[in-house]
Design goal:
By secondary structure, this protein is an alpha/beta fold. It is built from five helices and ten strands, in the order E-H-E-E-E-E-H-E-E-H-E-E-H-E-H. The strands form two sheets. An eight-stranded mixed sheet has the order 6-7-5-4-1-9-8-10, sandwiched between helices. Strands 2-3 form a two-stranded antiparallel ribbon. Helix 1 (29-40) packs across helix 2. It is globular and about 45 Å long.
Length: 198
């Protein structure tokens, strides 16, 4: 299982946002939606052994699970609709118990730390960061948990938590990448066994 945790620092925590303005009025939800589609979509197929956790303002986490995921389309608006539908059920999310809001999509009332702790069980936590070790020097982990931030840098508290928790801190190349592009490169790194097999 490959997992991606994406922190949405300005993301909405309620369902009262317009799908026509997810790049502005919805706190750059467009960035998170692109991460979801990059994590799951192949040409004419979907990756089933993938789980994406969108942490919304350290308050809620929307999880997409490729094993049971349905109704995901490769466009930002429909992905944002799945997030909005999940947030519409936020009153049903009690404690850390998830509420399934669509096949393969669930919402929990938890922030970054408990989401990271849960995902890290049995996995290798990998922080994708421009100051990390070159990815070509790192053995591809079997059950990676990649942690990325949205268009904002990690907050100090998040960076401290990652410093304590991350097994690896890697960079994917010499240039800074958008989070969704980083996910695509990370997939290719794993698909090709560290860029050694094609």
């Amino acid at each position: 299982m490959r997992q991606f945790i994406v922190l949405g620092h300005e993301a909405p925590t309620s369902d009262d946002f317009a799908l026509d303005d997810i790049a502005g009025g919805a706190g750059r939800l467009d960035v998170l939606c692109r991460c979801v589609t990059s994590a799951f979509f192949l040409s004419h197929d979907i990756r089933e052994a993938v789980r994406v956790h969108l942490v919304l303002r350290d308050e809620f986490t929307v999880t997409f699970d490729g094993r049971t995921l349905r109704r995901l389309n490769p466009d930002e608006r429909s992905t944002a609709a799945l997030v909005r539908n999940a947030l519409a059920e936020r009153e049903e999310a009690i404690g850390h118990q998830p509420v399934e809001t669509s096949p393969g999509v669930s919402l929990t009332r938890r922030g970054f730390e408990p989401t990271l702790d849960d995902a890290a069980r049995g996995g290798t936590v990998v922080q994708l960061h421009e100051d990390g070790d070159p990815v070509v020097d790192v053995e591809p982990p079997e059950n990676p948990v990649f942690v990325l931030s949205d268009h904002d840098d990690f907050a100090e508290r998040e960076a401290d938590l990652l410093a304590e928790t991350a097994d690896e801190r890697v960079r994917l190349g010499p240039e800074r990448l958008h989070a969704d592009h980083a996910i695509t490169v990370a997939h290719n790194y794993l698909d090709t066994d560290g860029f050694e097999r094609y």
